[in-house]
Specification:
Length: 233
């Protein structure tokens, strides 16, 4: 985990600061954070609530923009990308598991997971179906393929969101507290699934967690407190 940019880093963050403005008040979320993530890593961002974990993931996921500093994703300087190129990067390179799930209520489980593949327009109907059903099986939701999100428990919705993030086989998966709404058995299964993808597809995983069990599975841990990196192990 060097601090200098090198070509094997799939994510390279250099001296970023992120401030939010609430009325006349500036709320600093991250101060001068630098981080290199090697391709194929399985890395946990740890820290208490409000330490900047979600902000950091949002910057890596191109859903938010740094106030200053540089965010390089898969060799692209995100500051220089057009809105269209950013959309492409989010669609083809990054899978994001949000805490709020962001599922589409009018679509059933199968359609929610298939949705990113329809946007990508690269796979035919049969291939899409095979890939979606395979993942639904892996997250234990094959019997719920035709259910709507409203008919599912929080934990089941979480698993739909995870399947949807993995279905495009992205290079980078970002997961904000991926096991937060899950019972411990399901949480373990999800971590196993992520580890298997990491092993087989060399997918880079960056996840935030409070959960010591999840942290213990990480290959390296970045500890954040008050918007600064305290240590990387």
């Amino acid at each position: 985990m060097q601090k200098h940019h090198n070509s094997s880093s799939i994510v390279s963050i250099n001296n970023i600061t992120k401030d939010y403005h609430l009325g006349n008040v500036v709320v600093p979320a991250l101060h001068h954070v630098s981080l290199e993530v090697e391709s194929g890593n399985f890395i946990s961002i740890a820290g208490p609530s409000g330490s900047g974990k979600t902000t950091l993931l949002n910057l890596i996921g191109c859903v938010d923009v740094a106030t200053s500093g540089k965010v390089m994703i898969d060799g692209h300087d995100t500051k220089n990308l057009s809105e269209r190129k950013l959309t492409d990067l989010r669609l083809h390179t990054i899978g994001f598991i949000f805490q709020s799930f962001n599922l589409i209520p009018v679509l059933n489980v199968f359609q929610n997971v298939e949705f990113p593949l329809l946007l990508q327009k690269t796979l035919g109907k049969k291939e899409r179906e095979t890939r979606v059903l395979d993942l639904l099986h892996k997250v234990g939701l094959n019997k719920h393929a035709l259910h709507r999100p409203t008919e599912l428990s929080g934990g089941q919705r979480q698993r739909v969101a995870i399947a949807r993030a993995l279905v495009t086989r992205p290079k980078i998966v970002l997961a904000d507290e991926p096991t937060a709404n899950l019972d411990s058995k399901t949480g373990e299964n999800i971590i196993e699934l992520m580890k298997e993808m990491n092993r087989v597809e060399r997918t880079t995983f960056i996840f935030s967690t409070h959960d010591a069990k999840v942290m213990s599975q990480a290959r390296s841990i970045v500890r954040l407190a008050d918007g600064k990196i305290q240590e990387t192990t």
